[in-house]
Amino acid sequence: MAQPLSTAIDTAFKSNIVPDQEYLLQGSILDTSVEHLLHRLRGLCDNVDSGPEQFQDHEMCFTIRTTPTPLSLRVRRALDHTDMPWQLRYIGQPEYGDAKRPTIIRSSIDIGCSASVVEFLTELGCRMDFEYLARGYMFRKGRMKITVAKIVKTNPNKSQDSMQLISESYLVELSVLAPRGQDAIAEDMRSFAEQLRPLVNLDKVDYKRLAHGPP
Amino acid sequence: MAYSVNVAIEAPIENQIQEIAYDGTEVYQQPLSMSESLSKLAAKIDFGKGQDEKEEKVVDKTEEDAKDPAAYQSSLWPWDSVRNKLKNAFTEVCVLSDVLAIAKEKRYLVLDPVPQEPPETKAMVTVYARKKALGGAATVLLTGAERLRTSQSEAARNRAASDFHIELLALRKNWRLKKVGNSIIGDVSYRTAGSKFASSGMFEVTKAEEEPSSGWSPPQSPSAVAPPPKTPSALRVTLPSELQGVAYIEVHCRKDDEALFSTTVTSSTLNTAGPMPDMHWQKKLEAAQNVLFCKELFNQLAKEAVQLPGPIPHMVVGNQIVASILPGIQLIIGLCHSTATKNKKSGPPQQKKSDHDHVLEHSIHQLLREVHHKNTHHPFPHPSSGPLGPSKQRCLAGPSAVDRHELMEMSKSKTLLEQIIEQTQHFTMRRRTEYVLDTIAKEVRDPLIISHWNSINSPTKACVKVNIMTHGYDTICRTLLIIHVGKKSLKCICRDGSVMNMSYEIQELRDLLICQIQQHQITAVQALAKCMGWQLLSNNTHLGVGEVQQMGNASSCMLASPMGDRLIAVRCEPQAGVHVSIAHSPRKDFYPGQLVKDRKWENLGGGFKEVRWDKMEGKNFLNKMELLMASLTSSS
To answer: Where are the transmembrane segments (chain B) (predicted)?
Structure first.
């Protein structure tokens, strides 16, 4: 306990106990059927006796020009829990792997911070790339976190009531933060995702392919 | 008849078909002629039919008679046999009429009724016959009954099967079940509710087969009343032996001096009725779940008791945990588990069960439930992309730059045993405080001591407001004390704002209260004097003169009448009570002496005389003081 802080963190990283890997599955569901999905999640997940947990987050993505690829950082805050700290998060490149790998794995490092983080990042030379609001529900099943959220465009000029929806569907994400090398959880995620079929098809979504694919 | 119509009847033209040729032509029979058909019909008449053998002889005779004519006429005449028969008949009728005529005369022949021989009635035969008939009827009835019974049992068997499924459905609604192979396995453990107890709570569900109702039970005396009919459940749950029976956690406090008794009492098993073997499965499972819960609780407490460092180490012996909470007082937590077999051999009834503290038992249960709840109810992260797990405090720790010490404090948590010890300490303190307040209120009638317990309290903190006042004078003066009852200490906030911290030794509180009572009396007298127009000359709460008090100090005050000619001195001692003295000024009688020669010195007063307080009129101290002041107040 008496060792310096930097050494402690190094030891933690070396012994592989820092949960810096995010296992992720994504999917979407139409607004009309989201009720069914919520019902099913209520049945499957832990402790929904108090009802599903709602959230409303605001996310801003900042980029800074570095070589060879620009680095992006995400700042997120809870609009409905203003007393909670903001979150600064780095998300690495997703690894899709082969067909045998059940989930996307990407490195994820997050830290709580205060509201002045935006100013700080701007001072560093970051530029805001995009921002959006996410509104929806959160569920928990063991270590797994399931979010069912609606993505809303922000409009700084107008009040929050007149928000523009991006699409007529909800984004469904199943994620676990775990230390490197815990692939067993990925199998659990796959089997859980199986239980949500055919309401929502949670899968490894490759955005680059989506962007270049047929419209 | 004039209009009668002739109806002609004739045989159909169609004759009987004799044969049909191969080419289809039908060959008809020729119709019989009139005579032919007559003779054919006559031949059909059988005149001898219906006659007895007796007439046979006649016939024989007539045949003999008819032989000769028949010999020559038979070939000639087809009606011969008819004629013979008619002739015979005629002869017989003639003979009969002759006989009748003779009999009518009653001279030669008398007709007597033939005596009917009574049918032989054999008793045994009739009995046998009736028996046989009755037996036949009985078999019919029995077979009918048997058929009904089989159909009913068939229905019952079908119902039992459906009952099993219905009950299984009901079981599934409340308990976790899964199918393993051909058997149905259930789980009564609290694992899904956050328990981390390793012991499993598996049970097996089987279909209850028909069993002889009194197969295992001891033979009943013939006079025994039949047990009330029960509808046996179609479902049976089989529990492992360690989950059978009834268990509970026994909690009680014990003073050191009764240690010898209670050890023996608590170590024996409980005397509650064991579960009946044919208990309903719901009750059985609930009991098993309770057993499991109690075991987990005891296990956890025992683990903590061993690990917890303390000035006096806690002891875990068998199914008991002994923890000392205050000097001389121990908390004993015992796991009582009785199975049906143990229950039978349980000894004499235990009379010290009243020691068991239900409130503490409930608190202990509640503490473990809280742990379970915390294990499953982690806070959700906000914003939603955050990691699951850290509490809100931990989330805020980073941005608010919490230092190492605060982080360490954050991670500290009290064990169940520590919490229950604290609760017990508080419970003991509260009981002691109650006792002191009650006994003082009982001992001291003047002034009145009223205590109000705050209804809002926590398991380790309570608050009582003590009001000291004199009956009838409560508007003039009242002394308020607030006593905070903590875990091992008391904090008393007095009327003047001073805070007294006291230890668990309850004598301290008692002393404080007695001092407060005396101070109340002095304060009240001063307030009363103000009302009466008397003047307060001096006031001393801690008087330095007089004999030394056992505890505290005497307090006093000096009052002067409105005219200034009378003085009252009051001295309150915590133990000895109140002394009141009065003095006159100027003195009524003045005698010049060697030192005091001048009359002007008479205004000095002096020469206090003590009032015999117990002889004074008045209900209480203030009332007596009021009367005394009133009597000493001169109008001029």
So the answer is: none
Say if residue A82 is exposed, middle or buried (CB neighbours under 10 Å; 0-12, 13-18, 19+): exposed
Q: Is residue A125 part of a domain?
A: yes
Q: How many domains does chain A have?
A: 1
Measured between beta carbons, the chain A residues lying within 8 angstroms of B396 are 84-85, 112
**B455-459 long-range contacts, CB within 8 A, separation 24+:** B459/B363, B459/B422, B459/B423, B459/B426
Q: What is the pLDDT of residues B250-268, one digit of tens each?
A: 888 887 665 444 444 443 4
- Say whether B398 and A78 touch across the interface (CB within 8 A): no
User: Nearest by CB to A84, which of B377, B378, B392?
Assistant: B392
The whole-angstrom distance between residue B282's C-alpha and the CA centroid of its chain comes to: 12
Per-residue pLDDT, B344: 41
Instruction: Give pLDDT tens digits for B429-453.
Output: 999 999 999 999 999 888 899 999 9
Q: Residue B388 and residue A145: Cβ atoms within 8 Å? A: yes
Residues of B with CB under 8 A from a CB of A: 376-378, 380-388, 392, 395-400
Interface probe with B: pick from A24, A47, A108, A132, most Cβ of B within 10 Å: A47
Q: For the segment B385-419, what is each residue's pLDDT rounded down to a tens digit?
A: 888 878 888 888 888 888 889 888 888 888 888 89
Report if residue A7 sits inside a domain: no
Cβ contact, residue pair A47, B377, below 8 Å:
yes
What per-residue confidence (pLDDT) applies to B434? Answer: 93
For B243, residues 6+ apart whose C-beta sits below 8 A from its C-beta are B188, B201, B203, B288, B291, B292
β-bridge partners, A171? A28, A149
For residues B541 and B544, give the distance between their C-alpha atoms in angstroms, rounded to a whole number: 9
Cα–Cα dist A189/B556, whole Å:
83
Would residue A127 count as lying in a domain? yes
Q: Is the ipTM of this complex over 0.95?
A: no
What is the domain extent for residue A125? 21-211
CB-CB neighbors (< 8 A) of A76 in chain B: 383, 385
Taking the whole predicted model, whether its pTM rises above 0.80 is answered as no
B387 vs A110: CB contact, 8 Å cut-off? yes
Q: How far apart are the first and last CA of chain A?
A: 57
Q: Is residue A9 part of a domain?
A: no
- The whole-number average pLDDT for the span B23-35 is 80
Task: Find which of A137, A145, A173 to mutate to test the B interface (most B CBs within 10 Å of its CB).
Answer: A145
What distance lies between CA B332 and its chain's CA centroid?
28
CATH (domain of A145): 2.40.320.10
Indicate if the pLDDT at residue A108 is higher than 80. Answer: yes
* Rg for chain A, CA atoms, rounded: 18
